[in-house]
Amino acid sequence: MKKKKVNLRDLDPKEHQGEHSHDDGHNHSSAAEVSNFKTYLPAIFSFLMLITGIAIDYFDTFPFFRGWVRIIWYTVAYIPVGFPVIKEGWNSIRNGDFFTEFFLMSIATLGAFAIGEYPEGVAVMLFYAVGELFQNAAVNRAKGNIKALLDARPDEALVYRNGDFVSVNPETVEIGERIQVRVGEKIPLDGILLSEKASLNTAAITGESKPDTIAKSEKIYAGSINLDGVIEVKTTKEFKDSSIARILDMVQNATARKSKTELFIRKFAGIYTPIVVFLAIGLTFLPYFFVDDYVFRDWLYRALIFLVISCPCALVISIPLGYFGGLGAASRNGILFKGASFLDAITKVNTVVMDKTGTVTKGVFKIKEVVNKSAFAEAEFMQYLMAMEEQSTHPIAKAITEYKADGADFEATEVSEVAGKGLKGTVNGKQVLVGNKALMVSNGIEVPSETDTIVESIVMVAIDKKFAGYVTIADELKEDAHQAIKQIREAGISKIIMLSGDKDSITQKVSKELNIDWAKGGLLPEDKLTEVEELKKKPDTTVAFMGDGINDAPVLAASNVGIAMGGLGSDVAIETADVIIQTDQPSKIATAVKIGRSTRKIVWQNIGLAFGVKIIVLIPGAGGLATMWEAVFADVGVALLAIFNAVRLQKMKWG
């Protein structure tokens, strides 16, 4: 059973770009209303003709409304809704696909005309056409969020060239160029903020409607809208690699990746439809050999009813629509599924394995505590430490140099690195050592025993061969980290595990703080992969792995469902994963599971509804106890109910 393929290009607001770059004075809202009216006009015309014809038949007030006049009247009523369906069925036959719903409807309604049941023939085709209109409206509504993303695609970029900002196509801007973004405009490319600060609407990227404040030198993403003041950005990616382009590509590709249920129904319809046709033929002719008072017209009428009831419209329409609604609902919540198959897969997950750094923590080191044991004031002690760390590119060094210390900056000279231990050099004529305990011990410096119980990363300082103090460095938990674990458990996930490359003591501390079932630190990427593979071998275990770094890519690929952090996560992790969390919030995992379950529930409700009603009406229809009107309800009525049920996904809320 084939349906017309949804073409996402139809949603592209740039398709006819260039013709009206200014306000052309047209009322586009009115134009849309006229377009919608034209869409429904054939069905309205057929309905009025049908109702009028039935009224004349019933009251028998016009004697001339008989014979050819009556046939022509109902034929005129039939053509506006019937001709497009017959044409579609004929095109399908020419392409080698005989058994489509268009073919079934054409045979059933033309057959009704052949035996003189003109009103019923028109009614069946009219209600089928109305069902198609409702289906298209529902699909368009489900695609609304994708259209919003397409609308978020920037049209131009103001780039600094030859001493001035000029408007160009974003695709022509190179990495490292400076662009300007005015108030209300979209950020055209990913980059680094050059201005002091920016207030951005990032709804197209993250699904979050509240403004996001970005500070100088922080990352900024294409598709965000500048809310306050003119800002400047240094580009870090080409347009084709920007966040908004990547999202569009993933969402559009997601519609092409069908779930197993959807694929099964399509295969089922391809087998089911020809069987129905041959059963209808049998129902028409076989009773001749078994029934004494066989009347061809009566058995043909029963066969036509059988055809209408059996049409698998409700299944073929509502199931893809259900999954499309699920994908759309997820996108609105800042979650991108790379296909309907992953909406199904996430419902089966019972074990969540997560990375630590960048996943449940911010991935940004901060000074947690400064312990000064020297004769210097704390600010001066930190000046010695910062002077040394300015010579290093390590993330911990960056955290230390961000410390605000009073007084003039010190300068370090003769700095050398001691492999695996730290730095040694001279500051203000004093010999300074900065590093771990091994560096201190190797230089004969006594370290206080209190440092042995510190779990966080620790940087020790010695000045002129005396222990001067230390600072502890820690990564911060994300704001919703505790909430994430709580909600994952509430979603019915039985086991939560943490696997990290960070040292085991830190991993265990974070794990205990978050109430995670089991944790292991100090792992290389291949170690994480081994752990996940072992988990997958356990019976009835379906694993989702959540990570953000390049080192997580192998595990994301190996897990049953790979979930990547889309904001701060690496491109490799995002490309490998099956689900992308655009907001970088681990609590979105529970939302993703809930959306998957809601989608699956609605899909199976529609399958049960379609089969249940058809079976109930099919048996009396074949026995001559049901008319074409009951057949219309069993087919089009159930299809409409299934569509309305699928549309519910677009209004659901998942906390």
The gross shape turns out to be: elongated
Distance between the termini: 37 Å
Indicate the structural class.
Answer: alpha+beta
Number of strands: 22
What proportion strand? 15-25%
Largest sheet: 7 strands, mixed
Low-confidence stretches: 1-33
Spatial arrangement of strands, main beta sheet: 10-22-21-20-11-18-19
Helix segment tally: 21
Chain-averaged pLDDT = 81
Helix content: 40-55%
Could you tell me the radius of gyration in angstroms? 34 Å
Subcellular location: Cell membrane; Membrane
Family: Belongs to the cation transport ATPase (P-type) (TC 3.A.3) family. Type IB subfamily.
Biased composition (Basic and acidic residues): 7-27
Enzyme class: translocase
Description:
The protein is an alpha+beta fold and 655 residues long. Helices cover 48% and strands 17% of the residues. The chain has a 7-stranded mixed β-sheet with strand order 10-22-21-20-11-18-19, sandwiched between helices. Strands 2-1-3-9-4-7 form a 6-stranded antiparallel β-sheet, with no helix packed on it. Helix 8 packs antiparallel against helix 10 (313-332) and helix 9 (296-310) runs parallel beside helix 21 (628-647). It is elongated. The two termini are 37 Å apart. 43% of the residues are buried. The model is unreliable at 1-33 (pLDDT under 50).
Architecture blueprint of SSEs:
Layout: H1 28-59, H2 67-94, H3 101-114, H4 118-142, H5 144-151, E1 157-161, E2 164-168, E3 178-181, E4 191-193, E5 197-201, H6 203-206, E6 212-215, E7 219-220, E8 225-226, E9 231-235, H7 243-254, H8 260-285, H9 296-310, H10 313-332, E10 335-337, H11 340-346, E11 351-354, E12 361-372, H12 378-389, H13 395-401, E13 412-418, E14 422-427, E15 430-435, H14 437-442, E16 457-463, E17 466-477, H15 481-490, E18 495-499, H16 504-514, E19 518-520, H17 525-537, E20 543-547, H18 553-558, E21 561-565, H19 571-576, E22 579-581, H20 588-622, H21 628-647
Helix pairs in contact: 1-2, 1-4, 2-3, 2-4, 3-4, 3-9, 4-10, 4-21, 8-9, 8-10, 9-20, 9-21, 10-20, 10-21, 11-20, 12-13, 15-20, 20-21
